[in-house]
Amino acid sequence: MDQVSPSSLSPYRYFSVEEWSKLRADTPMTLSAEEVHALKSMNDPISISEAEAIYLPLSRLLSFHVEAKDKLYAVRSKFLGAKEGKMPFIIGIAGSVAVGKSTTARILTELMARWPGHPRVSLVTTDGFLYPNAVLAKEGMMERKGFPESYDVATLLRFLSDIKAGKRKVRAPVYSHLTYDIVPGETLIVDQPDILIFEGLNVLQTRDLPRDGKEVPFVSDFFNFSIYIDAEDDVIRRWYIDRFMSLKGTRFTDPRSYFHRYANIEDDEARRVAEGLWERINLVNLDENIRPTRPRADLIIGKAGDHSVNEVALRKL
Ligand SMILES: Nc1ncnc2c1ncn2[C@@H]1O[C@H](COP(=O)(O)OP(=O)(O)O)[C@@H](O)[C@H]1O
Ligand SMILES: CC(C)(COP(=O)(O)O)[C@@H](O)C(=O)NCCC(=O)O
């Protein structure tokens, strides 16, 4: 019998940055260096050359997927003999805390909004669906923020289901990193986008609601395409701690910041606080809940210690 090497069984095709960048073909760059710079998150550098090499090919691939979905939708309508409501294309972006999901989400949002036809692209983060601190504290879950049980999954699924059904003016709750809590009474209105990017730690998880024999969907059932952003644990740890130290001198100085009490402590002590948050919460969540979902993504973006992308893996169809 022929030997089967494990790599030949991989459901992914792997690309070096050079190979991937060629798949841009003739896709024009529609963002300036200044615009790319403005889209980056704190402590997550991205250059115009990286936006071109990584995100233009991805934008091209996604445009093909959107086109294919529209064709599928048209034949389905023909089969059903009736037009269904307008259905957006939904992209999920997953990955650890501090891995740079927000930067990727923002770059993709802007690139896609500039496609010919100017689709309406909305970006929603899952933190809005966390339970408020008052609820988490009552349940003894303040050190479980970001873990599957810290989200109101029923509300999150209702939101996605309404969006997918083409409902108008769907509301999502809003989270503030400054106050570290849900903002009471504030909502984000999503109004029939052509494309929705749904970004968060948990979007590829298969933790479900009590099913009681009913067919309850997973979050990822709503996705037309999913992306996982990856880097080595030690690297993400460093990014998390570096970001905490930058925040110490910036956002934490605001008296409204949940972390204000750390703004004036010694750097060594602040570093220990950040290390503690990483080890006790975010690393555990990464190991137990987030990285195990990586093999479910359609595309994996691998990042090196300097935040640059060093590998792209695309799921074989
Ligand atoms: N304590 C904080 N105060 C202010 N902004 C924060 C804080 N923590 C994270 N952020 C910002 O929130 C966004 C999301 O961060 P995170 O959930 O770690 O995901 P990622 O780094 O993968 O985008 C980032 O733009 C980050 O800079
Ligand atoms: C708010 C988060 C759970 C991220 O939520 P997401 O948008 O991915 O749903 C995370 O940034 C966080 O605050 N984690 C708790 C531990 C910490 O303070 O780092």
From TrEMBL:
Residues annotated as signal peptide: none
Residues binding ATP, per UniProt: G95, S96, V97, A98, V99, G100, K101, S102
Places the protein is found: Cytoplasm
Keywords, alphabetical: ATP-binding, Coenzyme A biosynthesis, Cytoplasm, Kinase, Nucleotide-binding, Transferase
Gene3D superfamilies referenced in this protein's UniProt entry, alphabetically: P-loop containing nucleotide triphosphate hydrolases (3.40.50.300)
Pfam name, any one: PRK
GO molecular function, one term: ATP binding
Residues of the Phosphoribulokinase/uridine kinase domain: 90-250
High-level lineage: Bacteria, Pseudomonadati, Pseudomonadota, Alphaproteobacteria, Hyphomicrobiales
Species this protein is from: Afifella marina DSM 2698
HAMAP family per the UniProt record, alphabetical: Pantothen_kinase_1
Family listed: Belongs to the prokaryotic pantothenate kinase family.
Record keyword ATP-binding present: yes
Protein name: Pantothenate kinase
GO cellular component, one term: cytoplasm
Domain of life: Bacteria
GO terms of biological process kind: coenzyme A biosynthetic process
Top-level enzyme category: transferase
